[in-house]
Design a protein that fits this description.
Layout (H helix, E strand, L loop, with lengths): L1 H13 L9 H11 L6 H15 L3 E3 L14 E3 H7 L4 H13 L4 E5 L5 H7 L5 E6 L2 H13 L5 E5 L2 H6 L18 E4 L5 H11 L8 E5 L5 H11 L6 E4 L3 E5 L7 E4 L3
Parallel strand pairs: 3-4, 3-6, 4-5, 6-7, 8-10
Antiparallel strand pairs: 1-2, 7-9, 8-9
Helix pairs in contact: 2-5, 3-4, 3-5, 5-6, 9-10
Length: 266
């Protein structure tokens, strides 16, 4: 707890808004996407899915494969409490919806479906093709039901460990396997929340980016190991622009960009 509080105070000290941003790409991203006040139809779709989750009476037997939950002591967890306490927040969901729209995301990958609210923020528009992977079978099953109830046929929900799923892709050391059908416009990594494992996923997914891809890492300031992982991602030779929004770390690979790191309040 104290680690995250200190990390947040440090973030506030270093963070900016659009003022003083000299990169045209990042300035437009902040002013036209991050701070966009326009109402998107997908906001309502996401809110409806959240409402259903909050009203759900289901209790799931959750298998924790990543960092131990700081919220739940037991594996039997009410869906309503998952939605209320650990799922993507309304503010973050709306930011994701704006990012998907602004960057015209057509194909996305999510590691860590949980009950599916993050998936709705990416693909609730009914257009973005999303593959979402969840290791826990019961939460994956609930998410599938939620997608079906909203008539979303653009989401493919896979119940698998992340390592097993990624092993079928090839790696950055085996680029010939990474053909165009396995390239993603957006990769959202909301899984494990362990620094070493996060770095491993990052390295394995590099083969599946293109010049305009966006990788988003959740909880980059959760622990010392996650902060170390974030710092290593920032200096990777393929990374050109990073944006630290405290909860999320955004990574761009645009080779036409000057290498820069930003800390932005959203």
């Amino acid at each position: 707890m104290w680690f995250k509080i200190k990390a947040y105070l440090k973030f506030l000290w270093h963070s900016k808004n659009q003022h003083g941003i000299h990169s045209p790409f990042v300035y437009k991203l902040i002013t036209q996407c991050f701070y966009n006040k326009h109402y998107f139809k997908a906001y309502g779709i996401w809110s409806n899915a959240q409402r259903k989750s909050l009203e759900s009476k289901e209790i799931l037997e959750v298998e924790d494969f990543g960092a131990k939950s700081k919220v739940f002591e037991r594996n039997r967890r009410p869906v309503s409490k998952i939605a209320e306490q650990v799922s993507i927040t309304k503010k973050r969901a709306r930011l994701m919806i704006r990012l998907v729209d602004y960057l015209s995301i057509e194909k996305a990958l999510e590691l860590g479906t949980s009950i599916g609210l993050g998936s709705f923020s990416i693909a609730g528009n009914g257009k973005t093709s999303l593959t979402t992977v969840e290791a826990c079978r019961e939460t994956s099953s609930f998410a599938r039901q939620l997608f079906k109830s909203e008539g979303l046929e653009n989401i493919s929900a896979i119940s698998s460990s992340f390592s097993e799923y990624l092993s079928g892709f090839g790696s950055s050391e085996n680029l010939e396997q990474a053909n165009s059908k396995n390239k993603f416009d957006l990769v959202f990594i909301d899984a494990h929340h362990d620094g070493k494992i996060t770095l491993n996923y990052f390295e394995r997914l590099l083969a599946h980016k293109h010049n305009d891809s966006l990788f988003i890492f959740d909880d980059i300031h959760l622990s010392p190991s996650m902060e170390v992982a974030w710092e290593q991602i920032k200096v990777h030779k393929d990374v050109k622009v990073t944006i630290d929004t405290f909860q999320w770390g955004l990574v761009f690979f645009r080779q036409e960009q000057v290498k820069q790191d930003f800390v932005i309040r959203v």
